[in-house]
Amino acid sequence: MEQYRTRPAQYGPRRDRPRSSLPPQAGRGAGGGAVRAVRQPGPQRRHPAVRRPAPAPAPASARFPNPRLTGLGSGLFCALVMFLLGGICAVLFGASLTAYGVLFLPVSALTGVWVRRGDLMTAPVVVPIAFAVGLVPVADGDGGMGGKLMGMVTALATQAGWLYGGTLITGLIVIARRIRLVHRRRTAAGAPAGARPSGAPRL
Hints:
Blueprint: E1 27-28, E2 34-35, H1 60-63, H2 71-92, H3 97-114, H4 123-134, H5 144-158, H6 160-190
Antiparallel strand pairs: 1-2
Helix pairs in contact: 2-3, 2-4, 3-4, 3-6, 4-6
Protein backbone atom coordinates (compact mmCIF):
# COMPACT_ATOMS: atom_id res chain seq x y z
CA MET A 1 0.00 0.00 0.00
CA GLU A 2 1.15 3.42 -0.77
CA GLN A 3 1.37 5.77 2.12
CA TYR A 4 0.85 9.36 1.42
CA ARG A 5 3.08 11.72 3.28
CA THR A 6 1.34 14.56 4.87
CA ARG A 7 3.37 17.63 4.31
CA PRO A 8 2.80 20.54 6.65
CA ALA A 9 1.32 23.53 5.05
CA GLN A 10 3.96 26.01 4.27
CA TYR A 11 1.63 28.86 4.45
CA GLY A 12 -0.75 29.15 7.29
CA PRO A 13 -3.65 31.49 7.69
CA ARG A 14 -2.64 35.12 7.63
CA ARG A 15 -2.83 36.71 11.00
CA ASP A 16 -3.78 40.34 11.47
CA ARG A 17 -0.88 42.33 12.71
CA PRO A 18 -1.57 44.53 15.69
CA ARG A 19 -1.82 48.12 14.79
CA SER A 20 0.78 50.34 16.18
CA SER A 21 -0.43 52.61 18.92
CA LEU A 22 2.09 55.24 17.97
CA PRO A 23 0.84 58.40 16.39
CA PRO A 24 1.50 58.93 12.70
CA GLN A 25 4.22 61.42 13.58
CA ALA A 26 6.24 58.70 15.32
CA GLY A 27 8.96 56.90 13.44
CA ARG A 28 11.54 54.30 14.03
CA GLY A 29 14.99 55.08 15.31
CA ALA A 30 18.24 53.43 14.51
CA GLY A 31 17.81 50.91 17.32
CA GLY A 32 14.28 50.07 16.39
CA GLY A 33 12.80 52.15 19.14
CA ALA A 34 9.94 54.48 18.56
CA VAL A 35 10.93 58.07 18.06
CA ARG A 36 8.36 60.81 18.31
CA ALA A 37 8.58 63.84 16.17
CA VAL A 38 9.31 66.98 18.10
CA ARG A 39 6.98 69.80 17.32
CA GLN A 40 8.61 73.09 16.74
CA PRO A 41 7.16 75.74 19.01
CA GLY A 42 5.19 78.21 17.02
CA PRO A 43 4.93 81.94 17.69
CA GLN A 44 3.36 82.53 21.09
CA ARG A 45 0.46 84.89 21.36
CA ARG A 46 1.04 87.78 23.67
CA HIS A 47 -1.89 89.05 25.62
CA PRO A 48 -2.38 92.75 25.24
CA ALA A 49 -1.43 94.76 28.30
CA VAL A 50 -4.43 95.69 30.39
CA ARG A 51 -4.51 99.37 31.10
CA ARG A 52 -5.71 100.24 34.54
CA PRO A 53 -7.95 103.27 34.80
CA ALA A 54 -6.33 106.31 36.27
CA PRO A 55 -7.37 107.04 39.88
CA ALA A 56 -10.14 109.56 40.16
CA PRO A 57 -8.98 112.95 41.41
CA ALA A 58 -9.79 113.72 44.99
CA PRO A 59 -12.76 116.01 45.48
CA ALA A 60 -12.06 119.62 46.25
CA SER A 61 -13.63 119.31 49.69
CA ALA A 62 -11.06 116.65 50.69
CA ARG A 63 -8.16 119.01 49.99
CA PHE A 64 -9.15 121.42 52.74
CA PRO A 65 -8.85 120.62 56.45
CA ASN A 66 -12.06 119.28 57.90
CA PRO A 67 -11.49 118.51 61.60
CA ARG A 68 -14.23 117.44 63.96
CA LEU A 69 -14.11 119.28 67.28
CA THR A 70 -15.97 118.40 70.44
CA GLY A 71 -18.00 121.01 72.28
CA LEU A 72 -15.08 121.83 74.55
CA GLY A 73 -12.63 121.72 71.66
CA SER A 74 -14.69 124.12 69.56
CA GLY A 75 -14.91 126.55 72.50
CA LEU A 76 -11.15 126.44 73.07
CA PHE A 77 -10.48 126.87 69.37
CA CYS A 78 -12.76 129.86 69.00
CA ALA A 79 -11.56 131.55 72.20
CA LEU A 80 -7.87 131.06 71.39
CA VAL A 81 -8.21 132.32 67.83
CA MET A 82 -10.21 135.38 68.90
CA PHE A 83 -7.69 136.19 71.63
CA LEU A 84 -4.86 136.07 69.07
CA LEU A 85 -6.85 138.17 66.62
CA GLY A 86 -7.58 140.68 69.39
CA GLY A 87 -3.85 141.00 70.07
CA ILE A 88 -3.15 141.45 66.35
CA CYS A 89 -5.81 144.16 66.10
CA ALA A 90 -4.35 145.93 69.14
CA VAL A 91 -0.87 145.97 67.59
CA LEU A 92 -1.59 146.53 63.89
CA PHE A 93 -4.92 148.36 63.77
CA GLY A 94 -4.71 150.50 66.89
CA ALA A 95 -7.25 148.51 68.92
CA SER A 96 -9.90 148.81 66.19
CA LEU A 97 -13.09 147.13 67.33
CA THR A 98 -14.45 147.19 63.79
CA ALA A 99 -11.55 145.09 62.47
CA TYR A 100 -12.01 142.75 65.40
CA GLY A 101 -15.72 142.35 64.63
CA VAL A 102 -15.03 141.63 60.93
CA LEU A 103 -12.53 138.92 61.82
CA PHE A 104 -15.02 137.42 64.24
CA LEU A 105 -17.41 136.42 61.43
CA PRO A 106 -15.21 133.83 59.62
CA VAL A 107 -14.11 132.35 62.95
CA SER A 108 -17.76 131.86 63.90
CA ALA A 109 -18.44 130.15 60.57
CA LEU A 110 -15.50 127.77 61.02
CA THR A 111 -16.65 126.91 64.51
CA GLY A 112 -20.08 125.92 63.20
CA VAL A 113 -18.57 123.84 60.38
CA TRP A 114 -15.90 122.02 62.38
CA VAL A 115 -17.90 121.06 65.46
CA ARG A 116 -18.86 117.39 65.40
CA ARG A 117 -22.41 116.17 64.95
CA GLY A 118 -22.96 115.18 68.54
CA ASP A 119 -22.09 118.68 69.83
CA LEU A 120 -23.81 120.89 67.28
CA MET A 121 -25.87 122.77 69.84
CA THR A 122 -22.79 123.87 71.79
CA ALA A 123 -21.36 125.97 68.94
CA PRO A 124 -23.82 128.93 69.23
CA VAL A 125 -23.11 129.01 72.99
CA VAL A 126 -19.30 129.10 72.88
CA VAL A 127 -19.09 131.71 70.12
CA PRO A 128 -20.26 134.70 72.25
CA ILE A 129 -17.96 133.61 75.07
CA ALA A 130 -15.02 133.56 72.67
CA PHE A 131 -15.97 137.04 71.45
CA ALA A 132 -15.74 138.34 75.01
CA VAL A 133 -12.41 136.57 75.61
CA GLY A 134 -10.93 138.16 72.50
CA LEU A 135 -11.84 141.64 73.76
CA VAL A 136 -9.29 141.42 76.60
CA PRO A 137 -6.28 142.67 74.57
CA VAL A 138 -8.26 145.06 72.36
CA ALA A 139 -10.64 146.77 74.83
CA ASP A 140 -9.65 150.20 76.20
CA GLY A 141 -9.28 150.65 79.93
CA ASP A 142 -8.06 153.38 82.34
CA GLY A 143 -5.86 150.87 84.14
CA GLY A 144 -6.38 148.18 86.69
CA MET A 145 -8.77 145.31 86.69
CA GLY A 146 -11.86 147.45 87.14
CA GLY A 147 -10.99 149.74 84.24
CA LYS A 148 -10.30 146.79 81.93
CA LEU A 149 -13.56 145.15 82.87
CA MET A 150 -15.45 148.37 82.21
CA GLY A 151 -13.79 148.67 78.80
CA MET A 152 -14.88 145.15 77.90
CA VAL A 153 -18.47 145.88 78.91
CA THR A 154 -18.46 149.04 76.80
CA ALA A 155 -17.02 147.14 73.82
CA LEU A 156 -19.67 144.45 74.12
CA ALA A 157 -22.39 147.10 74.15
CA THR A 158 -21.04 149.04 71.18
CA GLN A 159 -20.11 145.99 69.10
CA ALA A 160 -23.24 143.96 69.74
CA GLY A 161 -23.99 143.92 66.00
CA TRP A 162 -20.86 141.92 65.23
CA LEU A 163 -21.57 139.64 68.19
CA TYR A 164 -25.11 138.90 67.04
CA GLY A 165 -24.01 138.53 63.42
CA GLY A 166 -21.34 135.93 64.22
CA THR A 167 -23.68 134.04 66.54
CA LEU A 168 -26.38 134.06 63.85
CA ILE A 169 -23.97 132.67 61.25
CA THR A 170 -22.98 129.86 63.60
CA GLY A 171 -26.61 129.11 64.43
CA LEU A 172 -27.64 128.92 60.76
CA ILE A 173 -24.77 126.56 59.94
CA VAL A 174 -25.62 124.35 62.90
CA ILE A 175 -29.31 124.23 61.96
CA ALA A 176 -28.49 123.35 58.34
CA ARG A 177 -26.19 120.55 59.46
CA ARG A 178 -28.79 119.29 61.90
CA ILE A 179 -31.50 119.15 59.23
CA ARG A 180 -29.15 117.33 56.88
CA LEU A 181 -28.26 114.81 59.58
CA VAL A 182 -31.92 114.09 60.38
CA HIS A 183 -32.70 113.67 56.68
CA ARG A 184 -29.87 111.17 56.25
CA ARG A 185 -31.02 109.17 59.24
CA ARG A 186 -34.57 109.00 57.93
CA THR A 187 -33.34 107.93 54.50
CA ALA A 188 -31.14 105.22 56.03
CA ALA A 189 -33.99 104.01 58.23
CA GLY A 190 -36.47 103.84 55.34
CA ALA A 191 -34.11 102.05 52.93
CA PRO A 192 -33.59 98.25 53.12
CA ALA A 193 -30.61 96.95 55.04
CA GLY A 194 -28.74 95.94 51.86
CA ALA A 195 -29.54 99.16 50.00
CA ARG A 196 -28.20 101.64 52.49
CA PRO A 197 -26.81 104.66 50.68
CA SER A 198 -23.07 105.21 50.92
CA GLY A 199 -22.07 107.78 53.47
CA ALA A 200 -25.28 107.40 55.49
CA PRO A 201 -24.62 107.49 59.24
CA ARG A 202 -25.30 104.41 61.28
CA LEU A 203 -27.81 104.68 64.09
